Amino acid sequence: MSHWLAVTVTRRTPALLLALATATTLCAAPAVAAATPRTFSPGAPGAGDPYFPDMGNGGYDVQHYDLHLAFHPADHSITATTVITARATQNLSRFDLDLQGLKVGSVAVDGRSASFRRTGAQELVITPANGLLKGTYFTVTVRYGGVPKRIDDPALGTSGWITTKDGAIGLNQPFGAATYYPVNDTPKDKATYTQTVTVPRNLQVIANGQPSAVVKHGNQSTYRWTMNQPMASELASIAIGKYNVTRSTLTVGGRTLPNITAIGTSIDTAPGHDATFNATTARVVGWESSMYGAYPFSSTGGIIDDIGAGYALEVQGRPVYDQPDSTVDGDLLAHELGHQWFGDSVTPKTWADIWLNEGFATYSEWLWQERFRGIPVAASAKQAYDGEHDWSGKVASPGRDHIFDDLVYTRGALTLQALRLKIGDAAFFRLLRAWPTAHRYGNADTADFIAFTERLTGKNLNGFFHTWLYSAGKPSLPLPSNTLPSNSPTFDGPARTERLQVSGARHVTH
Fold first, then answer.
1. Nearest to 60 by CA among 30, 25, 92
2. For the whole model, what pTM was predicted?
3. Are 114 and 127 in contact (CB under 8 A)?
Protein backbone atom coordinates (compact mmCIF):
# COMPACT_ATOMS: atom_id res chain seq x y z
CA MET A 1 0.00 0.00 0.00
CA SER A 2 1.21 3.52 -0.70
CA HIS A 3 1.62 5.95 2.17
CA TRP A 4 1.69 9.73 2.18
CA LEU A 5 4.89 11.55 2.98
CA ALA A 6 4.98 15.21 4.03
CA VAL A 7 8.14 17.08 3.11
CA THR A 8 8.98 20.70 3.80
CA VAL A 9 10.56 22.13 0.66
CA THR A 10 13.93 23.85 0.79
CA ARG A 11 15.20 22.33 -2.48
CA ARG A 12 15.59 24.56 -5.55
CA THR A 13 14.94 27.77 -3.52
CA PRO A 14 17.90 30.16 -3.45
CA ALA A 15 19.07 30.95 0.09
CA LEU A 16 19.14 34.71 -0.58
CA LEU A 17 15.50 34.75 -1.62
CA LEU A 18 14.58 32.83 1.51
CA ALA A 19 16.42 35.32 3.68
CA LEU A 20 14.81 38.34 2.01
CA ALA A 21 11.37 36.76 2.21
CA THR A 22 11.85 36.02 5.89
CA ALA A 23 13.05 39.54 6.70
CA THR A 24 10.14 41.13 4.83
CA THR A 25 7.64 38.93 6.61
CA LEU A 26 9.07 39.69 10.05
CA CYS A 27 9.04 43.46 9.46
CA ALA A 28 5.61 43.70 7.88
CA ALA A 29 3.59 41.25 9.96
CA PRO A 30 5.47 39.69 12.88
CA ALA A 31 2.34 37.94 14.11
CA VAL A 32 1.64 35.98 10.87
CA ALA A 33 2.01 32.22 11.24
CA ALA A 34 4.62 30.29 9.22
CA ALA A 35 3.56 29.15 5.74
CA THR A 36 1.97 25.71 5.51
CA PRO A 37 4.56 23.14 4.33
CA ARG A 38 3.94 21.68 0.88
CA THR A 39 2.71 18.11 0.84
CA PHE A 40 4.22 15.48 -1.44
CA SER A 41 2.75 12.11 -2.38
CA PRO A 42 3.78 9.03 -4.39
CA GLY A 43 3.05 8.76 -8.08
CA ALA A 44 0.60 6.03 -9.06
CA PRO A 45 2.12 2.60 -9.80
CA GLY A 46 0.03 2.30 -12.97
CA ALA A 47 -1.31 4.47 -15.78
CA GLY A 48 -4.93 3.41 -15.45
CA ASP A 49 -5.26 1.12 -18.47
CA PRO A 50 -7.87 -1.51 -17.52
CA TYR A 51 -6.24 -4.15 -19.75
CA PHE A 52 -2.74 -3.65 -18.33
CA PRO A 53 -3.03 -2.14 -14.84
CA ASP A 54 0.68 -2.65 -14.06
CA MET A 55 1.87 -0.82 -17.17
CA GLY A 56 2.91 2.79 -16.93
CA ASN A 57 2.99 5.05 -13.92
CA GLY A 58 1.64 8.36 -12.71
CA GLY A 59 3.00 11.61 -11.33
CA TYR A 60 5.32 12.61 -14.16
CA ASP A 61 5.58 13.07 -17.91
CA VAL A 62 8.71 11.77 -19.64
CA GLN A 63 10.28 14.17 -22.14
CA HIS A 64 13.29 12.19 -23.35
CA TYR A 65 15.00 8.80 -23.02
CA ASP A 66 18.76 8.60 -23.47
CA LEU A 67 19.75 4.91 -23.66
CA HIS A 68 23.38 3.76 -23.58
CA LEU A 69 23.54 0.01 -24.04
CA ALA A 70 26.37 -2.45 -24.67
CA PHE A 71 25.45 -5.87 -26.09
CA HIS A 72 27.59 -8.90 -25.26
CA PRO A 73 26.75 -11.72 -27.70
CA ALA A 74 28.77 -14.37 -25.84
CA ASP A 75 26.09 -14.59 -23.14
CA HIS A 76 23.43 -12.33 -24.68
CA SER A 77 23.72 -9.92 -21.77
CA ILE A 78 23.57 -6.14 -21.78
CA THR A 79 25.24 -3.46 -19.69
CA ALA A 80 23.27 -0.24 -19.78
CA THR A 81 22.58 3.22 -18.44
CA THR A 82 19.34 5.03 -19.18
CA VAL A 83 18.92 8.71 -18.42
CA ILE A 84 15.32 9.92 -18.35
CA THR A 85 14.28 13.57 -18.43
CA ALA A 86 10.79 14.11 -17.05
CA ARG A 87 8.44 16.76 -15.69
CA ALA A 88 6.61 16.23 -12.40
CA THR A 89 2.82 16.48 -12.79
CA GLN A 90 2.27 16.48 -9.04
CA ASN A 91 4.36 17.09 -5.94
CA LEU A 92 6.20 13.77 -5.90
CA SER A 93 7.63 12.03 -2.86
CA ARG A 94 8.48 8.99 -4.95
CA PHE A 95 7.67 7.50 -8.35
CA ASP A 96 7.85 4.23 -10.28
CA LEU A 97 9.44 3.10 -13.51
CA ASP A 98 8.72 -0.18 -15.30
CA LEU A 99 11.63 -2.63 -15.54
CA GLN A 100 11.52 -6.40 -15.76
CA GLY A 101 14.15 -8.78 -14.46
CA LEU A 102 17.39 -6.90 -14.99
CA LYS A 103 19.62 -6.10 -12.03
CA VAL A 104 19.76 -2.44 -11.05
CA GLY A 105 23.14 -1.18 -9.82
CA SER A 106 22.28 2.40 -8.91
CA VAL A 107 19.68 5.14 -9.33
CA ALA A 108 20.24 8.89 -9.17
CA VAL A 109 17.75 11.76 -9.40
CA ASP A 110 19.22 15.07 -10.56
CA GLY A 111 22.67 13.63 -9.94
CA ARG A 112 21.99 12.70 -6.32
CA SER A 113 21.78 9.10 -5.20
CA ALA A 114 18.20 7.91 -4.74
CA SER A 115 16.91 4.89 -2.87
CA PHE A 116 15.06 2.24 -4.84
CA ARG A 117 13.31 -1.09 -4.44
CA ARG A 118 11.65 -3.64 -6.71
CA THR A 119 8.03 -4.69 -6.26
CA GLY A 120 5.48 -6.66 -8.25
CA ALA A 121 6.14 -7.83 -11.78
CA GLN A 122 7.98 -4.73 -13.03
CA GLU A 123 7.87 -1.84 -10.56
CA LEU A 124 11.12 0.01 -9.86
CA VAL A 125 10.13 2.28 -6.98
CA ILE A 126 12.40 5.34 -6.68
CA THR A 127 12.55 7.73 -3.72
CA PRO A 128 14.63 10.86 -4.39
CA ALA A 129 16.58 12.63 -1.66
CA ASN A 130 14.06 15.49 -1.76
CA GLY A 131 10.52 15.83 -3.05
CA LEU A 132 9.96 16.94 -6.64
CA LEU A 133 7.76 20.00 -7.09
CA LYS A 134 4.90 19.85 -9.57
CA GLY A 135 5.98 21.40 -12.88
CA THR A 136 9.72 21.01 -12.33
CA TYR A 137 11.94 19.03 -14.68
CA PHE A 138 14.20 16.32 -13.32
CA THR A 139 16.53 13.60 -14.55
CA VAL A 140 16.68 9.96 -13.48
CA THR A 141 19.80 7.90 -14.17
CA VAL A 142 19.47 4.13 -13.87
CA ARG A 143 22.49 1.84 -14.25
CA TYR A 144 21.58 -1.79 -14.80
CA GLY A 145 22.45 -4.99 -16.61
CA GLY A 146 21.84 -8.68 -17.11
CA VAL A 147 20.24 -10.93 -19.70
CA PRO A 148 16.91 -9.50 -20.94
CA LYS A 149 14.11 -12.01 -21.21
CA ARG A 150 11.51 -12.14 -23.95
CA ILE A 151 7.83 -12.29 -23.04
CA ASP A 152 5.70 -15.14 -24.35
CA ASP A 153 2.11 -14.31 -23.51
CA PRO A 154 -0.40 -17.11 -24.22
CA ALA A 155 -2.88 -14.71 -25.80
CA LEU A 156 -0.71 -11.90 -27.15
CA GLY A 157 2.37 -13.75 -28.37
CA THR A 158 6.04 -12.83 -28.20
CA SER A 159 7.39 -9.40 -27.36
CA GLY A 160 10.29 -7.72 -25.60
CA TRP A 161 13.98 -8.45 -26.10
CA ILE A 162 14.16 -11.35 -28.57
CA THR A 163 17.38 -13.26 -29.22
CA THR A 164 17.99 -13.86 -32.93
CA LYS A 165 20.47 -16.09 -34.75
CA ASP A 166 23.04 -13.28 -34.98
CA GLY A 167 21.99 -10.77 -32.34
CA ALA A 168 18.79 -9.49 -30.76
CA ILE A 169 15.85 -7.17 -31.36
CA GLY A 170 13.44 -5.26 -29.15
CA LEU A 171 9.79 -5.58 -30.24
CA ASN A 172 7.82 -3.78 -27.57
CA GLN A 173 4.13 -4.10 -28.35
CA PRO A 174 2.29 -4.16 -26.07
CA PHE A 175 4.54 -4.44 -22.99
CA GLY A 176 8.05 -5.45 -24.09
CA ALA A 177 9.96 -2.20 -23.57
CA ALA A 178 10.54 -2.86 -19.87
CA THR A 179 12.51 -6.01 -20.68
CA TYR A 180 15.56 -3.94 -21.66
CA TYR A 181 15.21 -0.40 -20.32
CA PRO A 182 13.46 1.43 -17.45
CA VAL A 183 10.42 3.16 -18.88
CA ASN A 184 7.04 4.68 -18.24
CA ASP A 185 5.45 1.97 -20.35
CA THR A 186 2.16 3.50 -21.38
CA PRO A 187 1.14 4.75 -24.84
CA LYS A 188 -0.07 7.97 -23.20
CA ASP A 189 3.45 9.10 -22.24
CA LYS A 190 5.31 9.78 -25.47
CA ALA A 191 8.88 11.05 -25.50
CA THR A 192 11.83 11.62 -27.81
CA TYR A 193 14.66 9.08 -27.83
CA THR A 194 18.40 8.79 -28.24
CA GLN A 195 19.65 5.19 -28.41
CA THR A 196 23.41 4.61 -28.30
CA VAL A 197 24.39 0.97 -28.68
CA THR A 198 27.84 -0.62 -28.62
CA VAL A 199 28.34 -4.01 -30.28
CA PRO A 200 31.22 -6.12 -31.65
CA ARG A 201 32.44 -4.78 -35.00
CA ASN A 202 30.93 -7.68 -36.95
CA LEU A 203 27.42 -6.60 -35.93
CA GLN A 204 25.27 -3.60 -36.84
CA VAL A 205 22.58 -1.66 -35.02
CA ILE A 206 19.40 -0.20 -36.52
CA ALA A 207 16.88 1.74 -34.46
CA ASN A 208 14.28 4.51 -34.67
CA GLY A 209 14.98 7.84 -36.29
CA GLN A 210 18.18 9.06 -37.84
CA PRO A 211 21.71 7.72 -37.37
CA SER A 212 24.89 9.52 -36.43
CA ALA A 213 28.28 8.45 -37.69
CA VAL A 214 29.38 5.04 -36.44
CA VAL A 215 32.31 5.25 -34.02
CA LYS A 216 34.73 2.32 -34.19
CA HIS A 217 37.06 1.63 -31.27
CA GLY A 218 39.11 -1.52 -31.03
CA ASN A 219 36.91 -4.48 -31.81
CA GLN A 220 33.74 -2.54 -30.98
CA SER A 221 31.42 -0.21 -32.88
CA THR A 222 29.06 2.35 -31.34
CA TYR A 223 25.88 3.34 -33.14
CA ARG A 224 23.70 6.30 -32.21
CA TRP A 225 20.12 6.76 -33.39
CA THR A 226 17.87 9.72 -32.55
CA MET A 227 14.09 9.97 -32.80
CA ASN A 228 13.18 13.64 -32.51
CA GLN A 229 9.42 13.21 -32.72
CA PRO A 230 7.41 11.96 -29.72
CA MET A 231 7.25 8.17 -29.59
CA ALA A 232 5.32 5.70 -27.44
CA SER A 233 7.50 3.08 -25.76
CA GLU A 234 5.64 0.27 -27.57
CA LEU A 235 6.99 1.66 -30.86
CA ALA A 236 10.66 1.97 -29.87
CA SER A 237 13.09 -0.68 -31.08
CA ILE A 238 16.75 -1.67 -31.23
CA ALA A 239 17.82 -4.26 -33.82
CA ILE A 240 21.27 -5.85 -33.51
CA GLY A 241 22.58 -8.27 -36.12
CA LYS A 242 24.09 -8.66 -39.58
CA TYR A 243 22.25 -6.71 -42.25
CA ASN A 244 22.51 -5.61 -45.82
CA VAL A 245 21.53 -1.95 -45.58
CA THR A 246 20.24 0.23 -48.42
CA ARG A 247 20.04 4.00 -48.11
CA SER A 248 18.29 6.48 -50.36
CA THR A 249 16.34 9.69 -50.04
CA LEU A 250 12.81 10.44 -51.10
CA THR A 251 11.19 13.79 -51.67
CA VAL A 252 7.50 13.94 -50.86
CA GLY A 253 5.41 17.03 -50.33
CA GLY A 254 8.50 19.21 -50.62
CA ARG A 255 10.41 17.37 -47.88
CA THR A 256 13.45 15.18 -48.38
CA LEU A 257 13.58 12.15 -46.09
CA PRO A 258 16.28 9.54 -45.50
CA ASN A 259 15.00 6.07 -46.42
CA ILE A 260 17.01 3.38 -44.63
CA THR A 261 16.04 -0.25 -45.19
CA ALA A 262 17.80 -3.43 -44.09
CA ILE A 263 17.50 -7.14 -44.76
CA GLY A 264 19.11 -9.78 -42.55
CA THR A 265 22.07 -11.29 -44.39
CA SER A 266 20.93 -14.82 -43.56
CA ILE A 267 17.76 -14.40 -45.66
CA ASP A 268 18.92 -11.84 -48.24
CA THR A 269 19.64 -14.43 -50.91
CA ALA A 270 17.58 -13.11 -53.84
CA PRO A 271 19.35 -10.51 -55.99
CA GLY A 272 17.53 -7.20 -56.15
CA HIS A 273 15.28 -7.64 -53.15
CA ASP A 274 17.20 -5.01 -51.18
CA ALA A 275 16.61 -2.40 -53.87
CA THR A 276 12.97 -3.47 -54.26
CA PHE A 277 12.37 -3.21 -50.52
CA ASN A 278 13.82 0.30 -50.40
CA ALA A 279 11.95 1.48 -53.49
CA THR A 280 8.61 -0.02 -52.41
CA THR A 281 8.94 1.59 -49.00
CA ALA A 282 9.47 4.95 -50.68
CA ARG A 283 6.55 4.39 -53.02
CA VAL A 284 4.17 3.50 -50.19
CA VAL A 285 5.25 6.47 -48.05
CA GLY A 286 4.78 8.87 -50.97
CA TRP A 287 1.39 7.46 -51.91
CA GLU A 288 0.07 7.37 -48.36
CA SER A 289 1.28 10.92 -47.79
CA SER A 290 -0.96 11.99 -50.67
CA MET A 291 -3.99 10.67 -48.75
CA TYR A 292 -3.11 11.07 -45.08
CA GLY A 293 -1.11 14.29 -45.10
CA ALA A 294 2.54 15.01 -44.45
CA TYR A 295 4.62 12.03 -43.36
CA PRO A 296 4.98 12.54 -39.59
CA PHE A 297 8.62 11.57 -39.00
CA SER A 298 12.06 12.71 -40.12
CA SER A 299 13.10 9.41 -41.73
CA THR A 300 11.56 6.20 -43.00
CA GLY A 301 12.61 2.67 -43.88
CA GLY A 302 12.16 -0.86 -42.56
CA ILE A 303 13.80 -4.11 -41.53
CA ILE A 304 13.16 -7.59 -42.93
CA ASP A 305 14.65 -10.39 -40.84
CA ASP A 306 13.98 -13.90 -39.59
CA ILE A 307 13.15 -13.12 -35.96
CA GLY A 308 10.78 -15.87 -34.89
CA ALA A 309 8.13 -13.58 -33.41
CA GLY A 310 5.58 -14.38 -36.09
CA TYR A 311 4.41 -10.90 -37.04
CA ALA A 312 5.30 -7.53 -38.53
CA LEU A 313 5.33 -4.50 -36.26
CA GLU A 314 4.79 -0.79 -36.90
CA VAL A 315 8.04 0.33 -35.25
CA GLN A 316 8.03 4.12 -35.46
CA GLY A 317 9.74 5.33 -38.61
CA ARG A 318 11.12 1.90 -39.47
CA PRO A 319 8.68 -1.06 -39.36
CA VAL A 320 10.00 -4.57 -38.74
CA TYR A 321 8.85 -7.47 -40.93
CA ASP A 322 9.51 -10.90 -39.46
CA GLN A 323 9.71 -13.41 -42.30
CA PRO A 324 11.86 -16.35 -43.37
CA ASP A 325 12.89 -14.83 -46.71
CA SER A 326 13.43 -11.44 -48.31
CA THR A 327 10.24 -11.31 -50.37
CA VAL A 328 8.77 -7.80 -50.46
CA ASP A 329 5.00 -7.74 -49.86
CA GLY A 330 3.51 -4.39 -50.90
CA ASP A 331 0.24 -5.07 -49.08
CA LEU A 332 2.10 -5.64 -45.82
CA LEU A 333 4.21 -2.53 -46.31
CA ALA A 334 1.05 -0.51 -46.92
CA HIS A 335 -0.33 -1.80 -43.63
CA GLU A 336 2.73 -1.13 -41.45
CA LEU A 337 3.59 2.18 -43.08
CA GLY A 338 -0.06 3.24 -42.79
CA HIS A 339 0.45 2.85 -39.06
CA GLN A 340 2.95 5.71 -39.15
CA TRP A 341 -0.08 8.01 -39.27
CA PHE A 342 -2.57 5.75 -37.49
CA GLY A 343 -1.03 4.33 -34.31
CA ASP A 344 2.39 5.96 -34.31
CA SER A 345 1.71 9.66 -34.86
CA VAL A 346 -1.77 9.56 -33.36
CA THR A 347 -1.71 6.85 -30.71
CA PRO A 348 -4.65 5.39 -28.75
CA LYS A 349 -5.05 6.53 -25.15
CA THR A 350 -5.81 2.97 -24.04
CA TRP A 351 -5.37 -0.47 -25.55
CA ALA A 352 -9.16 -0.85 -25.88
CA ASP A 353 -8.96 1.70 -28.69
CA ILE A 354 -6.48 -0.30 -30.79
CA TRP A 355 -8.98 -0.56 -33.64
CA LEU A 356 -7.98 3.06 -34.38
CA ASN A 357 -4.58 1.58 -35.27
CA GLU A 358 -5.46 -1.67 -36.93
CA GLY A 359 -8.69 -0.71 -38.65
CA PHE A 360 -7.02 2.16 -40.47
CA ALA A 361 -3.91 0.11 -41.29
CA THR A 362 -6.02 -2.70 -42.73
CA TYR A 363 -7.98 -0.16 -44.74
CA SER A 364 -4.65 1.16 -46.00
CA GLU A 365 -3.99 -2.33 -47.40
CA TRP A 366 -7.34 -2.27 -49.19
CA LEU A 367 -6.64 1.15 -50.68
CA TRP A 368 -3.18 -0.01 -51.82
CA GLN A 369 -4.67 -3.09 -53.44
CA GLU A 370 -7.18 -0.94 -55.27
CA ARG A 371 -4.62 1.58 -56.47
CA PHE A 372 -1.77 -0.76 -57.42
CA ARG A 373 -3.32 -4.20 -57.90
CA GLY A 374 -6.71 -3.37 -59.35
CA ILE A 375 -8.71 -4.93 -56.51
CA PRO A 376 -11.53 -2.54 -55.54
CA VAL A 377 -11.94 -1.68 -51.88
CA ALA A 378 -15.55 -2.80 -52.21
CA ALA A 379 -14.34 -6.27 -53.24
CA SER A 380 -11.94 -6.49 -50.29
CA ALA A 381 -14.69 -5.36 -47.92
CA LYS A 382 -17.17 -7.87 -49.35
CA GLN A 383 -14.67 -10.71 -49.03
CA ALA A 384 -13.96 -9.73 -45.43
CA TYR A 385 -17.63 -9.26 -44.58
CA ASP A 386 -18.69 -12.57 -46.09
CA GLY A 387 -15.70 -14.41 -44.63
CA GLU A 388 -16.04 -13.11 -41.07
CA HIS A 389 -17.67 -15.83 -38.96
CA ASP A 390 -17.24 -14.48 -35.42
CA TRP A 391 -19.26 -11.35 -34.73
CA SER A 392 -19.48 -11.86 -30.98
CA GLY A 393 -16.94 -9.25 -29.85
CA LYS A 394 -17.06 -5.47 -29.68
CA VAL A 395 -14.58 -3.63 -31.88
CA ALA A 396 -13.95 -0.76 -29.45
CA SER A 397 -13.93 -3.03 -26.42
CA PRO A 398 -12.20 -6.25 -27.52
CA GLY A 399 -10.85 -7.34 -24.12
CA ARG A 400 -7.24 -7.71 -23.03
CA ASP A 401 -6.62 -11.05 -24.73
CA HIS A 402 -8.16 -9.99 -28.05
CA ILE A 403 -6.40 -6.74 -28.93
CA PHE A 404 -4.57 -8.47 -31.79
CA ASP A 405 -7.56 -10.47 -33.03
CA ASP A 406 -9.27 -10.20 -36.40
CA LEU A 407 -11.98 -8.39 -34.44
CA VAL A 408 -10.02 -5.12 -34.41
CA TYR A 409 -8.30 -5.55 -37.80
CA THR A 410 -10.98 -6.71 -40.22
CA ARG A 411 -14.05 -5.47 -38.38
CA GLY A 412 -12.24 -2.21 -37.71
CA ALA A 413 -11.66 -1.79 -41.45
CA LEU A 414 -15.25 -2.79 -42.20
CA THR A 415 -16.38 -0.06 -39.81
CA LEU A 416 -14.44 2.43 -41.91
CA GLN A 417 -15.96 1.10 -45.13
CA ALA A 418 -19.44 1.39 -43.61
CA LEU A 419 -18.60 4.93 -42.51
CA ARG A 420 -17.42 5.77 -46.03
CA LEU A 421 -20.71 4.60 -47.47
CA LYS A 422 -22.63 6.60 -44.88
CA ILE A 423 -20.85 9.95 -45.17
CA GLY A 424 -19.72 9.75 -48.81
CA ASP A 425 -16.31 9.62 -50.45
CA ALA A 426 -15.58 13.34 -50.26
CA ALA A 427 -16.09 13.55 -46.50
CA PHE A 428 -14.40 10.21 -45.91
CA PHE A 429 -11.16 11.16 -47.67
CA ARG A 430 -11.16 14.51 -45.87
CA LEU A 431 -11.43 12.53 -42.64
CA LEU A 432 -8.46 10.30 -43.57
CA ARG A 433 -6.29 13.41 -43.78
CA ALA A 434 -7.83 15.60 -41.09
CA TRP A 435 -7.87 13.05 -38.26
CA PRO A 436 -4.11 12.27 -38.10
CA THR A 437 -3.28 15.91 -38.83
CA ALA A 438 -5.38 17.22 -35.94
CA HIS A 439 -3.93 14.67 -33.46
CA ARG A 440 -0.35 14.65 -34.78
CA TYR A 441 2.07 13.29 -32.12
CA GLY A 442 -0.78 13.00 -29.62
CA ASN A 443 -3.21 10.49 -28.20
CA ALA A 444 -6.88 9.94 -28.89
CA ASP A 445 -9.61 7.44 -28.11
CA THR A 446 -12.76 6.23 -29.81
CA ALA A 447 -14.91 8.96 -28.24
CA ASP A 448 -12.53 11.55 -29.69
CA PHE A 449 -12.82 9.96 -33.13
CA ILE A 450 -16.61 9.90 -33.02
CA ALA A 451 -16.80 13.54 -31.94
CA PHE A 452 -14.27 14.56 -34.60
CA THR A 453 -16.16 12.75 -37.35
CA GLU A 454 -19.45 14.31 -36.30
CA ARG A 455 -17.91 17.79 -36.35
CA LEU A 456 -16.35 17.21 -39.76
CA THR A 457 -19.56 15.87 -41.33
CA GLY A 458 -22.18 17.76 -39.36
CA LYS A 459 -23.98 14.46 -38.80
CA ASN A 460 -25.15 12.70 -35.65
CA LEU A 461 -23.39 9.34 -35.90
CA ASN A 462 -23.92 7.98 -32.39
CA GLY A 463 -26.27 5.25 -33.55
CA PHE A 464 -23.96 4.21 -36.37
CA PHE A 465 -20.89 3.92 -34.16
CA HIS A 466 -22.83 2.19 -31.39
CA THR A 467 -23.81 -0.50 -33.88
CA TRP A 468 -20.38 -0.94 -35.44
CA LEU A 469 -18.07 -0.40 -32.48
CA TYR A 470 -19.92 -1.09 -29.26
CA SER A 471 -22.32 -3.88 -30.18
CA ALA A 472 -21.87 -7.56 -30.89
CA GLY A 473 -23.55 -9.07 -33.92
CA LYS A 474 -23.28 -8.64 -37.68
CA PRO A 475 -24.43 -5.22 -38.88
CA SER A 476 -25.85 -4.82 -42.35
CA LEU A 477 -23.39 -3.44 -44.87
CA PRO A 478 -24.62 -2.36 -48.31
CA LEU A 479 -21.84 -3.45 -50.62
CA PRO A 480 -21.85 -2.05 -54.14
CA SER A 481 -20.73 -4.03 -57.15
CA ASN A 482 -17.00 -4.42 -57.73
CA THR A 483 -16.47 -1.07 -59.42
CA LEU A 484 -14.09 1.64 -58.30
CA PRO A 485 -15.79 4.45 -56.31
CA SER A 486 -15.59 7.63 -58.35
CA ASN A 487 -13.60 9.70 -55.84
CA SER A 488 -11.09 7.08 -54.74
CA PRO A 489 -7.53 6.78 -56.11
CA THR A 490 -7.74 4.87 -59.40
CA PHE A 491 -5.71 1.91 -60.56
CA ASP A 492 -5.09 3.30 -64.05
CA GLY A 493 -2.79 6.28 -64.49
CA PRO A 494 -0.53 8.13 -62.08
CA ALA A 495 -1.19 8.07 -58.35
CA ARG A 496 -3.23 10.99 -57.04
CA THR A 497 -0.86 13.88 -56.06
CA GLU A 498 1.94 11.42 -55.37
CA ARG A 499 4.80 13.95 -55.80
CA LEU A 500 7.44 11.33 -55.09
CA GLN A 501 11.08 11.28 -56.06
CA VAL A 502 13.57 8.62 -55.00
CA SER A 503 17.27 9.25 -55.42
CA GLY A 504 20.66 7.98 -54.43
CA ALA A 505 19.79 4.39 -53.55
CA ARG A 506 22.95 2.64 -52.50
CA HIS A 507 23.71 -0.70 -50.94
CA VAL A 508 25.61 -0.33 -47.66
CA THR A 509 27.50 -2.99 -45.76
CA HIS A 510 29.72 -2.68 -42.71
1. 92
2. 0.88
3. yes
